[in-house]
Amino acid sequence: ARGQGEKVVAVTIREWRTDAYTRVKVTWNLEAEVLDAAGASLGRSQTQGSAPIGVTNLAADSSGIAGQELTRRLSQLLNERRITDALQ
């Protein structure tokens, strides 16, 4: 952030992994932080876990379902109250 009152949202993907055998499993560790122009933290949120997200077979492309899950997890992270409050 360069000017006064400007804020930056930094998203860190510490881990994003999918595993597909008979089921698609995703493991994640995501963090978001809102910083002011001086670099001070105004709010921080983190989510991590592991969950099955679908069934696969040899012809299936698990990257599509994994991409949808990443979008969902990032949206969840950025919409947490600590982040939305810090952006106001």
How is this structure best described in words?
- The model has no long low-confidence stretch (mean pLDDT 85).
- The protein is elongated and about 50 Å long.
- The protein is built from two helices and three strands, in the order βββαα.
- A hairpin with a 2-residue loop joins strand 1 and strand 2 (23-35).
- The chain is of the alpha+beta class and 88 residues long.
- A three-stranded antiparallel sheet has the order 1-2-3.
With helices defined by DSSP (H or I, 4 residues minimum), what is the helix count? 2
Average pLDDT: 85
Structural class: alpha+beta
Uncertain regions spanning at least 5 consecutive residues = none
Report the portion of residues in β strands: over 45%
Q: What is the string of helix and strand elements?
A: EEEHH
Q: Quick one: biggest sheet?
A: 3 strands, antiparallel
Strand neighbour order, sheet with most strands:
1-2-3
Q: What best-fitting shape do the alpha-carbon axes yield?
A: elongated
What Rg do the Cα atoms give? Answer: 16 Å
Helix percent reads 25-40%
